[in-house]
Amino acid sequence: MTIDPQLDKLFYSLLTKDNLSGYEDPEKFKKWVPKIKAYREKLDSSVPQELKVDLPGPIEKLKADQFNSMKYLYDEKLLSPHEFEITDCAGTSIVENIASGKWTSVEVFKAFAKRAVLAHQLTNCAVEFFIDEGLARAKELDDYQIQNGKLIGPLHGLPISLKEHISLKGRIGHSGIVSLLDNIPDKDAVTATILSKLGAVFYVRTNEPHALLPLDSGSNITGFTKCPFNLLLSSGGSSSAAFSGCHGLRPSSRRISARGLVGEGGGQESVVGVLGPLSRTIKDIDLFMKSYINDGKPWLLDPWSLPIPWRDVPKPDLSKLKIAVMRDDGVCRVTPPIRRGLNEVIKKLKSAGVEIVEFVPKNGRLAYDVAVKLSNCDGNRALREAFSASGEPLPRLTKWYLNLGDGAREYTVSENRKLNAIRDNLRQEYSDFLIENGIDFFLGPAYNNVAPKEEEVYNESYTLIYNLLDFPSLVFQTGLFQDPKVDVWNEEDMKYEYRSGMEELENRGYDPSQFIGAPIALQLSGRRYCDEEVVAASEVIVNFLGVDLLKRQKD
Amino acid sequence: MTIDPQLDKLFYSLLTKDNLSGYEDPEKFKKWVPKIKAYREKLDSSVPQELKVDLPGPIEKLKADQFNSMKYLYDEKLLSPHEFEITDCAGTSIVENIASGKWTSVEVFKAFAKRAVLAHQLTNCAVEFFIDEGLARAKELDDYQIQNGKLIGPLHGLPISLKEHISLKGRIGHSGIVSLLDNIPDKDAVTATILSKLGAVFYVRTNEPHALLPLDSGSNITGFTKCPFNLLLSSGGSSSAAFSGCHGLRPSSRRISARGLVGEGGGQESVVGVLGPLSRTIKDIDLFMKSYINDGKPWLLDPWSLPIPWRDVPKPDLSKLKIAVMRDDGVCRVTPPIRRGLNEVIKKLKSAGVEIVEFVPKNGRLAYDVAVKLSNCDGNRALREAFSASGEPLPRLTKWYLNLGDGAREYTVSENRKLNAIRDNLRQEYSDFLIENGIDFFLGPAYNNVAPKEEEVYNESYTLIYNLLDFPSLVFQTGLFQDPKVDVWNEEDMKYEYRSGMEELENRGYDPSQFIGAPIALQLSGRRYCDEEVVAASEVIVNFLGVDLLKRQKD
């Protein structure tokens, strides 16, 4: 990691809210180093040797070269045509092909396992493989199908990777926190239970940022995950649809159970975390949500989950949609590739008859401030306990996170409630704006830049707003990629006056020559609990834009 | 108010958590006395003289006589047969009769207005009348019906009384708090807006306990409300179904909008308050919920409200129900009339084939402790600000409330979250208990006693548990009434060892000769968001028990 010394100075000057004492303890940490080593060795040894390929060079060189591993995968034909056919098939169709007998669950599983191992070799995306168990489960499913003449559920035979903090019984669950390497949950998270019951096959758990805090991905346990389109860049976190080239849904809270997540102390209700699916097709996101909710009925296992069925909504007619575009949220200016992405998508949507309204949020900065204050309103006490238990060194961005809001100052209950009340007023304001103006959705950036460099991503305002509002939001790929020749700051840009140190860090960190080929994503958001409408409209928009993440890679 | 001096001593010995300084200020309060006086005068003058009756004696004598005003109403025929016919008709049928042209909205309104004035004369239940406005609205509705040949909505012409803290534009909203006599909301609460749109007619606002805290009803502003069946007793609060002889639903949170309530600072999410309907028939509760949710769509006006439609569920077959009976919650022993009510209802339900399971909650005391700690976890700061703004004298039970939990100790955010996490575990425990044992509902007391005496009601554990769990709960009348000859402590009871000072206060305060004729209510509760099932089963049970609150009064 090399960061412009001037920007690094600015970065450290912004860390004023938590003096970071009481976290790190090198002496204490020594005890944990062997546990980290053992964890990494287990990860390495769990990767079947026969599935590995020779990389085209040392990983550090590939990083420096901004290596595009997606292109490499296809150019070098690292999978057989049959394996490509399977792994570049929408989940919806995979289940159909298993149902029709065209493919077996085992056959599907083997192709995905191979591709996952390749992905891991190139991007360091996995923290745990259990391919043997996955294979055994796939065999079970094939047997079930033969014996019963039907599928076990709507996700029968579908290999699904899980974020690491979704507890699995008997397996270490750490959320990137070293001291949790001793944590072995005694039961599966509700969401794992449901997916498994629906027929999904688990075999790999994916990396997450330290305690799921920063917007990049990685921790002291297994290091960082890289963007498959440019290995110099980060895959992003805690989920990574905007940076890694897939679509992803942030559902409204309480539609997907969050019961049984690792490291989740519980009881935080101000800005509620959610789980949601990532996929290369939007129809798979719909399949996931519909199956999970309507067949999985999470409320029977978790009273926190809402018994709101997943509704079948008609695909909207683009010429009847009214969309409010937020080009700048008042917190951080977007970089040239994101600006281009917005401009091109808006132009196309207008050509399809979409009514576009410009939206300049009058309380964007307030929303960001409230959200980060609420996120840290326990004065980082829970994090301090978790980190200091091992004394692990704090990654750069963990320090950043600990300094958001009022950092180490623990709020009283009254202070917390006052911020909650402001949050509720913001929800009302954004909701009323949509309803009173007959606007269907917000369209905007998912982040002010494309995939960031490792440990150089500071601003989460563009996604945090929807966590604060608890509005459903779908990050979708535009099919566009950063182009160092086109996506440069123009003369006007150079005169810009930064509104905050964070904005300066973010904007000045964008050197066009270092983000080559990074995917350009945007997000579509709607009213609370209108997840179905957001998914349906996203599918229509993505299809209209001609984005096909499966087809593109096959060509 | 005369309280056994020994019990009074015990009461004051239990007030150890908040020393009550910083609330009262007689000097400051002087300024507010004229405002209270003006409020009362406005109330008095808003009662049309021609609707008033002569009471059979001074109110203090009626209280001492444990006067039954319900009996008096019918014995003395204080309403005409036509007025009785209208006001003893289910809301569902009133709307039908208006639709068919049998009655006009004005005719219905006049009968209810007269009955409301009588009720107020006898029980002091109203804090504000606006009969002229109600009449004008009823006329408007009649005109609408004539012009359009149809009703304006599913509650067309139905007179509904509102609890005082439901904001009405341009009218003082105080929640029993003197300093809020200056508060004049600039818009209606969402729930008032919806009910009005559905066709309801407002004309009276009803009394509430001081800041909606205690379980009795009244404040320094307009005094206490009495139980219509025994004027010595309290009507109860903040709602009063268990004490005043009607049925009432506590819905799951976020089904009825709580946006725009007076005195609600907002941001408290640990034990969420809810609004729900009170009625003399359960089918009217169903009408209210169904119309409010499915036609009113509160989520369009308030993003806090959940878009969960009110489901039509089949009326359950009693012989297929399995009900867990909680006779004692581990916090407070019930008095003899409640015990009798439980025994008789259980006996009848068993005869109908209901499978009855005894349920002894293993964490009842923990649940109570967590709930009261969460209720006061801001160290009473919000209440201190509200009360001290006028320096008003603290009613006896306000002092009690301020001393619940840890009283004046303000929690940190971490402490709040830890309690929330315990609450979530309790929700899981109760929910799992129902699901894993195939149990449909909990049946139990709604309070450990019948209607209490003014300022002598300390324990809210039997309702608080469902606020904590956020389970829907329906308080229903058993059709039984306290009988001083039957409902006495027995020899076994006399040997009982109290588990807490609060229990001693509650139990020793029950002198059978002072609760004559108080209605005996119970409650049926179900899983979170299974409000529909709770209402449907309650209707079947109440019908099976032969309880008819309209018929009984006509006989």
Automatic annotation (TrEMBL), chains A, B:
Residue ranges of the Amidase domain? 107-240, 241-534
Note the Gene3D superfamilies from the entry.
Amidase signature (AS) domain
Report whether Methyltransferase shows up as a keyword of the record. no
GO molecular-function terms, A-Z = hydrolase activity
Q: Which domain of life is it from?
A: Eukaryota
Q: Which UniProt keywords apply?
A: Hydrolase
For this chain, the family text in UniProt reads:
Belongs to the amidase family.
User: In its UniProt entry, what is this protein called?
Assistant: Amidase domain-containing protein
